[in-house]
Design a protein that fits this description.
The complex is a heterodimer. Chain A is mostly helical. Chain A is 63% helix and 0% strand. Chain A has a single domain, classed as Non-ribosomal Peptide Synthetase Peptidyl Carrier Protein, Chain A (Orthogonal Bundle), CATH 1.10.1200.10. By secondary structure, chain B is of the alpha/beta class. The chains are: A mainly alpha, B alpha/beta.
Chain lengths: 84, 559
């Protein structure tokens, strides 16, 4: 999967899970500016991303991923370690 | 609004309930919400409550010490007091639907093999806890039990629980678990509020057996103890099981009927026998036409039917021409048939929460009806009705039949004067209330017992009685038993010194057949679709009417 494709899919998963328009979610969106991304929203997002991409985050990655960009970097490192 | 209460963090379930008006009690606010009459769960916006009990959290650290004397007793005592609070809530809010789950402990504990070898462990405790939950539901008509333990066993505990989110946020259950919980909740809620589908229409070739009968011949059909043939055999066993919960099976197949009869006769391994089918259309007509014919033969509407066929062409044709019939896809791999029926088809279309004796005898009853029709062809209507040897019993406040009465009120479309639908909880209230009476009519004739086939609810306002609900199964339409039933009800009203009877006919898309009933019975038209009559006059009018017909129907009132 290309990085762009991955990013689009990630934005879609986040938007669907939080029930907001995909246009409202960007790579810089975070739990500070997306209202439904509260503590429960965070669990829903992490569960949905894990299911959507077939990965499993570590507890520290779950705690660290407070924006789409952080989420993407965690996701990429998991996918890379699996490829390598 | 649906309100969800739990002793763990269940809020991530929100995204598994799209389109649902749902709110969650704060984590571990279960007890507080149930006890505090000013809490949101008591608000009248809330008409459904799902109480999810996490068994591990109920036990807390005693999971690792439960065989010790006193530990299990303490857990059960706590659970029972919690169930008592839930019961009080359900009684207080008898207009709301309350759902509780069966409990599932993690299957692997320190004691697993000790218990398997006869020692003490957690499994016995899990059983005792579930007995307590199940007995709660038997006492309360508006309380349902969702079988969570079945979900956990089916998918596997390790595939559903996630310790990362448990420690981070006290959310034990993963997306798959929450999705299954939401799906199952929706299914049982539908089963509680709406009648399930009643007829399963089945193709034959490559649907309930492997191969094409017309090409391979009777001996070439695949359905045996060997190899993949067993997949069809086990599928048939599931289908046969469905007849025991009141589902009617019918054949819709393009074949030569004689070949099919021969195939059933010569194949001792077929779990399904030809007699297991309530109707059959085996010919070369278009399937939608055959389905309409079966609908007429069984007097059941198309929206009560599900059609299974391996051919996508036939499925599309039925879907396009009869949109009321449910037409699910069909697995390409026959080894998936059994699991597909059990996991998707049965829970989606035929889920039942309670089994009435009428359900269990439905197949027999429809076959008895076929015999009645044969008998009816030879005589006039009057001779036919007299010859049936009908015996009727009217039950007043039929507590023992309240499930069946509810089922009739929810399912009856044609002979349904007011079109009202009540849940079991509502029927329960009519039974107990001083200003209403519930009546049920039991039917038998020389061909067999039909059980409870009609029901009525009468409300009282001073010296006036209003017939709120009057429903009768379409199986007995045309035998005049509705007049006997009404006469027995009116006789009871005379005894209660009721002066006038009022009734209303509310037209629905399907109840035209019942529109003339009140006028034929002797009620007088007053305003649009509304009828009334002096009670004693109505009784005399009904007596005359029934006397003229000379119908031999012994009608006795039992309370």
């Amino acid at each position: 999967m290309q990085v762009n494709e991955l990013r689009d899919k990630l934005l879609r998963v986040v938007a669907d899970t939080l029930d907001v328009p995909v246009a409202d979610v960007s790579i810089d969106s975070s739990c500070n500016d997306l209202k439904p991304w509260d503590s429960v929203g965070h669990i829903m997002v992490m569960l949905a991303v894990e299911q959507g991409f077939g990965v499993k985050f570590s507890v520290s990655q779950i705690e660290a991923a407070r924006s789409v960009r952080e989420l993407e970097s965690g996701l990429l490192s998991l996918l890379e370690s699996r490829a390598g | 609004m649906l309100r969800i209460l739990s002793n763990v963090n269940l809020e991530p379930m929100r995204c598994e309930l799209p389109g649902e008006d749902v709110s969650f009690a704060g984590f571990n606010q279960l007890d507080r919400e149930l006890l505090d009459l000013s809490s949101p769960v008591y608000s009248h916006d809330v008409c459904e409550v799902l109480i999810f009990l996490d068994a591990e959290e109920l036990l807390k650290d005693r999971l690792y010490s439960c065989p010790e004397a006193g530990s299990a007793e303490a857990v059960l005592a706590e659970l029972n007091s919690l169930l008592g609070r839930i019961a009080r809530y359900a009684q207080h809010r008898d207009d709301a639907l309350v759902t509780v789950n069966t409990l599932a402990l993690p299957p692997r504990t320190i004691f697993s093999h000790i218990e398997a070898n006869g020692g003490k462990g957690a499994l016995a405790l899990e059983d005792a806890m579930n007995s307590a939950v199940i007995s709660l539901a038997q006492e309360l008509p508006n309380l349902l039990v969702l079988d969570w333990r079945m979900i956990v066993k089916d998918a596997g505990y390790a595939n559903l629980a996630d310790d990362r989110f448990w420690y981070l946020a006290r959310a034990r259950w993963n997306k798959r678990a929450l999705r299954s919980l939401a799906t199952e909740y929706r299914r049982i809620r539908t089963a509680y509020t709406r009648a399930p589908r009643k007829v399963l229409l089945l193709d034959l070739d490559n649907t309930i057996w492997g191969g094409v009968l017309g090409e391979a011949g009777v001996s070439g059909v695949e359905l045996s103890e060997d190899g993949v043939g067993k997949a069809y055999r086990e599928m048939q066993q599931v289908l046969k099981g469905l007849t025991a919960i009141g589902v009617l099976l019918a054949i819709v197949s393009k074949n030569n009927e004689a070949d099919v009869i021969e195939a059933f006769r010569l194949h001792p391994l077929f779990p399904l026998r030809l007699e297991d089918f309530a109707a059959r259309r085996i010919n070369w007509n278009p399937k939608p036409q055959n389905i309409i014919a079966i609908s007429e033969e069984l007097s059941l509407s198309l929206d009560a039917m599900v059609f299974l066929d391996d051919s996508p062409v036939e499925r599309d044709l039925v879907r396009a021409s009869l949109p009321e019939v449910a037409v699910p896809g069909f697995p390409a791999d026959p080894t998936m048939l059994k699991s597909w029926l059990l996991r998707e088809i049965v829970p989606e279309y035929f889920e039942r929460l309670k089994l009435t004796s009428e359900d269990q005898q439905k197949g027999l009853q429809y076959r008895a009806n076929a015999a009645r029709r044969e008998f009816g062809k030879r005589t006039t209507v009057e001779e036919y009705i007299r010859g049936l040897g009908i015996e009727l019993s009217v039950h007043i406040q039929p507590w023992d039949f309240r499930q069946r009465v509810t089922q009739l009120i929810q399912k009856t479309n044609q002979f349904n004067l007011s079109g009202k639908r009540y849940t079991e909880g509502e029927v329960h209230r009519f039974l107990g209330a001083p200003d209403s009476d519930v009546f049920a009519l039991e039917y038998a004739d020389r061909f067999g017992k039909e059980g409870i086939i009609a029901a009525a609810i009468v409300k009282y306002q001073d010296s006036e009685a209003v017939i709120d609900t009057f429903v009768m199964s379409c199986r007995v339409i045309g035998r005049n038993v509705e007049f006997h039933f009404l006469k027995a009800i009116v006789s009871h009203l005379v005894d209660r010194s009721i002066k006038t009877v009022r009734a209303e006919y509310v037209p629905t898309p399907k109840n035209a057949v019942s529109s003339p009933f009140y006028q034929q019975a002797g009620l007088e038209y007053c305003t649009e679709n509304s009828f009334r009559r002096d009670t004693k006059e109505l009784y005399r009018s009904l007596s005359d009417l029934i006397g003229n017909w000379e119908i031999q129907a012994g009608c006795k009132l039992t309370s």
